[in-house]
Amino acid sequence: MPVPLLDLTRENQPLLAEIQAAMQPVIEGSQFILGKVVSDFEQSAAEYFELSPDDLALGVSSGTDAQLLALMALEIDAGKEFICPPYTFFSTAGVIARAGLKVKFVDIEPETYNLDPSKLEDAISEETAGIMPVHLYGQLADMTSIMEIANRHDLPVIEDACQSMGARHKNIVSGNFGDFTSISFFPTKNLGAFGDAGMLISKRPDLREKAIRMRVHGMKDRYEHLEVGGNFRIDALQAAILSVKLKYLPEWHEMRRKNASYYAKNFADLKIEQNQLEQPIEKKDNWHIYNQYVVRVKEGKRDALKAHLDAAGIGNMIYYPTPLHTQPCFQYLGYKAGDFPVAEHACTEVLALPIHPFITQDEIRQVCEAISSFYKV
Ligand SMILES: Cc1ncc(COP(=O)(O)O)c(C=O)c1O
């Protein structure tokens, strides 16, 4: 039997009656844009993120738009540099360019794929206007070190927590370190909408009202625009769906974590060694939520293992095959292959395996046996 990388039907089907009941008042009341359903969802999310009353949890149209909105609210002089890793989903660097800023890449740590704080300080100059660390695959970057450096240089931080809603570092939940944080509710995330949606978290009371205005074209009173913002609103129907699903999120995180330990047990049983296939690690001080379960396939065998799993019907994916500094659209920045060796090496070894909450233990066993049969040939 094939094992899918992700099966959203298993997650959503049991909740359908509850979700339809939550959508009904929105449809009957025709309040499709913002309104009480959105503010109720924002309130529940603020509690989930353990925010204080001065902080803001703002429902927006996508994780990308949350990042763009944060950069726009910071009003940084055009041409200044904003730091991010070269190994992440495109939008992290894309929004920096779209905000009229210069993307400045800093390499990642090999074991977490997150921004390497030991390489950060050297990249900071007079031109640096801020830092966007990414919490990749469900694990937080080393925010103790990154915030220490950012604070010392008085630089704003935007956390890209699009893949890591609810993950923790030193028991502090994502969203509570930086000035702003972006969250994505893209359907494949641990909390997924029925389409695009996202959230902006702000811990900048001085920019709170501005961020709220900029979600709606910088509008204060009707047709009075204080800033140029955008249409960054979340749909009320998405907020209704997410309000239902949010209640199950802690349980789903735990199910993903159990699946990760079940992988470890199976790899040990089947004698698949770390020097063949490196399992993801949960760094000390971190609480991983496994949005993705990404192994590193050693000895140059990644593409062959991928082909083997494809042939066996085992879902898998390469996140990400090409680092951002060598993407065609960023050639103008002048980077070249070899500039970020850790990121480039990761691109050649990573392979994501199925980890969604509703995968069965039998299916995980099947994935591991398919991997084992690859090494036994
Ligand atoms: C690391 C990272 N940053 C940003 C985004 C952008 O989020 P969205 O797809 O909601 O715009 C994503 C989503 O895929 C992501 O994984």
Descriptive overview:
The chain has 377 residues and is of the alpha/beta class. The chain folds into two domains: 8-246, Type I PLP-dependent aspartate aminotransferase-like (Major domain) (Aspartate Aminotransferase, domain 2), CATH 3.40.640; 250-376, Aspartate Aminotransferase, domain 1, CATH 3.90.1150.10. Helix content is 36%, strand content 12%. The chain contains twelve helices and 13 strands. The strands form four sheets. The protein has a four-stranded mixed β-sheet with strand order 1-9-8-5. The longest helix is centred in the last third of the chain and has 21 residues, at 249-269. The chain is globular and about 70 Å long. The site of pyridoxal-5'-phosphate has 15 residues, from helix 4 and helix 5.
Describe, in short, the structure shown.
The chain has 377 residues and is α/β, with parallel strands linked by helices.
- Biggest β-sheet strands, sense, barrel: 4 strands, mixed
Q: State the fourth-level CATH superfamily of the largest domain.
A: Type I PLP-dependent aspartate aminotransferase-like (Major domain)
Strands, total number = 13
Radius of gyration: 21 Å
Helix content: 25-40%
CATH fold call of the largest domain:
Aspartate Aminotransferase, domain 2
Secondary-structure-based class equals: alpha/beta
Number of helices: 12
Count of distinct structural domains: 2
Uncertain segments of ≥5 residues (pLDDT<50)?
A: none
Return the string of H and E elements: HHHEHEHEEHEEEEEHHHEEEHHEH
Main β-sheet, spatial strand arrangement: 1-9-8-5
**What would CATH call the class of the largest domain?**
Alpha Beta
What best-fitting shape do the alpha-carbon axes yield?
globular
